[in-house]
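Consider the following assembly input.
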Amino acid sequence: MSKKFMERIIGREELIRVIEGLLGNFQVVGPRELPGKGVFYQPMKNARDIYLGGGFTIEPVKKFFLSPSECFFEQKRNESGEFLEEAPLAGDKRIIIGARSCEARGLTLLDKVFDSDYKDSFYINNRKRTTLIGISCDSPDKDCFCTSMGGSPTEGRGMDALIFEIGDQFIIEVISDKGSDIFGSAGSELNEEQKKLWESDKKKRKEALSRKVAVPDGLDKAFGSPYWERASSACLSCGVCTYLCPTCHCFDLVDEERKRLRCYDGCAFADFTLHASGENPRPTKKERYRQRAYHKFDYFKKNFGENLCVGCGRCIRHCPVKIDIADIVANAPLDKES
Amino acid sequence: MIEELRNKVKELFASKRVDVVLGYQRAVDGVSAKPLFIYNQEDAERLVWDSYCVYNLACYLKELAGKKVGIIAKACDVKSIAVLLQENQWKSQDLFVIEVEEVKPSAPADKYESVRKLEAKSASERLKFWEEEFSRCIRCYACRQVCPMCYCPRCVADQSMPAWFSRANSLKGNLSWNVTRAMHLAGRCIDCGECERACPVGIPLRDLNKKIEKDVKELFNYEAGSSVEQKPLLSCFDKNDPTDFIK
């Protein structure tokens, strides 16, 4: 982080040309709008397909680092018998464009889980082989609350470069060597006037975010409260909130077709933590929803010093029944320990 | 209007006829509605009813077995309840239905227009279409959870010994899941559209259900949810059935 890179300013056509130049040499993933369906990260074939609007992708960038179904090993057979073959690590260098600050920050939280005491070779390899180029938000959604979670729509944590669209120009904040490899010589350096413009633009982006959420300290005081039953009553027990969350990382090990896979799991599902005996320590929605709230705003904070939430608002925006975790946690009854 | 509705709910609690009433309340954004579980007269004050109340509240009945339940029901919810009663999932004496009229968008001229467009495609074009749609499926099972008719205590998708289809997020598993879900709703889906609304990635699930609904209508002159008295289509037979295998 100590190394300082210069910001660059380029026009729209030049940005497209830079992306076009990448397409021939790397696998490039970027946001694409599917009419009537939303914005999705997809492998890019044409640089002009890139979506540079204000909308957010439905799925976060997480899936490119923590795959929904990661194969660990495969059982094989040869003349001398059966053996296990470890799944190879993907080697291709890859460029992902379009991540928002919250999604990239989500990766810095996942780093604490998958690249700390425990080293997950798949996750770490995906982080290493990827250059992550962010796009700063200028039109936050009503469900966004990143600034309340210690983030900001203009921060570049977890990224290699961050793009700010200002008028018909793009200012590129180069954050790492990987980012510099792509944008180091693109366009020109910012002059004093452009620097001022960028600073005031950044301020505007932060101020555009209106929702503020206060997560109370000492949430554990509310653990035994009947509040969680009421708070979770409308939950459908689907996987929308957990699967679309940039930080949720619970998984299940699944054996199929002679392969061992690590598949996403989610605490909202009824069979989350269901034991083979039939016992489930989280038998109802109350315990499962509370698990989600506490993993994000209590346990993770105790273990790693930060909330396991980046305020991207996806779980609220896409919840089929409008359950709002920020509201639920902010209103938890800390004085009613029982 | 809303006071009348609140009073009806309060009356159910006053006369001790219900344990819980399903209704709607305002969401945090101040505009949308969200489901409300009403446990007492005081809760009833939070009730709202307007065009944002889109959910099919009958989906919560599967988890309320053994309770006496009141439900604020628009046309789709009423139809869903009819199917649940027909399939012996509920006893009518345990259910108190408060019917409400919804502000309906004008009905389309041809309900099956999108289905006809799909029917006009060749089989391989159709497969390509659905493969593209299902490739986005994230297997969150929101379509299942939001459906009033998906009440299996242990869904085939959750079974692991044996696993009936791939749990991995792959096209093969996604295709199996979505087709299984649609087929299990044959003659039962009342086309409330909740699966499609709940789907976060915009898969047109309703077209899949409507195709089956259309076939059921054309082949058997049967409409799910139109009456509690009719026998469930795929759980009964007719002596006059034109095919031989059933006789």
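Chain A touches chain B through 41 residues (CB under 8 Å). Ask yourself how this observation constrains the way the partners meet.
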